[in-house]
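input
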Amino acid sequence: MTAADNRVQLVRDATFVRLDTAGGISGNRGTNPDGLFLRDARHLSRWQLTVDGTSPIALVPAEAATDDAATCVLTPQGTRDNPPAYTVFRRQTVSAGTLTDHLRLVSNLPDPVTARVDLTADVDFADLFELRADDRHYPKPGSRYTAHTTPDGLHFDYDRADWHARTTLTCHPAPDTVATAQGAEESTARTLSWHLRLDSHGEAELHLTLRAHPHGLTLDAPPVPHTHRQTSTGTDDLNRACERGLADVDLLTIPVTGVDGDEVHVPAAGIPWFLTLFGRDSLLTSYFLLPYRPDTAAATLSALAATQGQRYDSFSGEQPGRIVHETRHGELAHFRQVPYGRYYGAVDATPLFLVLLHAHYETTNDRSLAQRLERHARKAVDWMLTDGGLEEHGYLVYTADPGGLVNQNWKDSAGAICFTDGTQAKGPIAVSEAQGYAYDALQRTAELAHKIWQDEPYAHRLRNAAARLRSRFTTDFWMPQADFPALALDGDGHQVDALASDAGHLLWSGILDAEHARRVGQRLLEPDFFSGWAIRTLAAGQKPYHPLSYHRGSAWPHDNAIIALGFARYKLAHEVDTVTNGLIAAAAHHGFRLPEVIAGYDRSATTGPTPYPHSCSPQAWAAAAPLALRTARHQVRNEPHT
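output
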């Protein structure tokens, strides 16, 4: 696959590599990092090939042949009268912790020739949080980088206290020489050199294997199984997007530990920044997949139950019963230099955990998972009522985390929860869609208590709590002048009055009555909200609107998928079809892969959707969005799932 920045991106088995168009790596940082990545660390930061002393020319630039393999055709520099003596056919593949680079040199001459091949390699073992911006620097006291020559390659090692990581390079044939890279006397960069003889029109091959050995992980386990299967036999564009989406979910599936210590396989959030378990992302992705792959939901629920909060920790936001926002395995998380080892800064992951638990039972009629996770479900309800704020504030609330996330709903960028003048709301903030999730979670968990746990008093308590929440919600959130729900209530109870797509989630959760839901549905398809491709996160024309912002004017496929499911709940068939047709038209411009987010420009402005510049690709809930759109169409038409 080719990333938006024109780098080639390959992914398989929780490992990914980003290469330039000649198959090289230069150690970029910031928004477009390149390298070999595993478990939140870069295990190859320099991989630069020269032939006959110069950088080769790409006759055929690197292109992904499959999701995990790329090919290119290179030559030494030449002229019309002195064409290149040989051609290099390069194939690179990625698998679990491994990058292989196969160079096949083919002579173009009738006489023997010797090709000189040099390869400079280095590993910086940088944590992803270091790479996200050039100005992020974290102290690493006592750290030590070393490079050791072996008979057939190199070992790169990184040590810091109890942290140890390694990358090994194995070469066939072995290099003729290994030397410190020119100008890199104080780094671990090494240049390996070969002199390969090519007979008349003959060939020579060079096989290079990089293996990452991250801290705390043994790669002897079998790779993640791929469960991709067809969802239908149709060939329309929605089917094509579903097929591409399922393939991308497979690429993003990673092994994690389940609630009983078993290994389970769950969808990670996205590449390059989020190839790890995310509470909200993994839950919604699993919900979208539920009619087609219920085992994914079971695995996600098990993994999140295993990481459910047990104690109070202000650094990570952990609280008893709270569902984790994200998990990280990198060096900075290990040494608590960032709070994200297990970070709990999400107001919505906990109710979504309960929603998915009941939805799994509802879909499969399998009682065993709800029985197995009863204790975890009750703890999640307890968190919503206590630390989550339902009893004290009447709503689920969050406050800004100075060391983590300012906003803790799905629009978690700074400034996303804003008034129409662009001012960020101050907490405790009760964001609208989280109240819908809480209502749905209480209703659904009451049904589990009634049908499976045989605890009618508990079920009655939860139903009453849900009814009270629904009753006060419309009173407190509905803005009569705008005839639309507020984005949030701030800490003083003021309506945060920006017109935002979050209102569509209220239809999915069922917290609105039918008349208010109909009005929201129709409003979301007005031109200031609906771009022709998708519903914008923020309606155009408001002061904070920006079509290239992350959450204040862009459009997100997963957001639209949730809204479409809400439309289906209230039988708004025209609205379901409008959103589905727009998103699938957008997907058709990207090989039927929906990006994480697209710019908010109107469809009439360009021939295709304008990419958001920092979008993850592939990204799990975007990949699963076409399946949710399919479900919405089936629901609104009362058709069985296929």
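quick obs: The radius of gyration is 26 Å.
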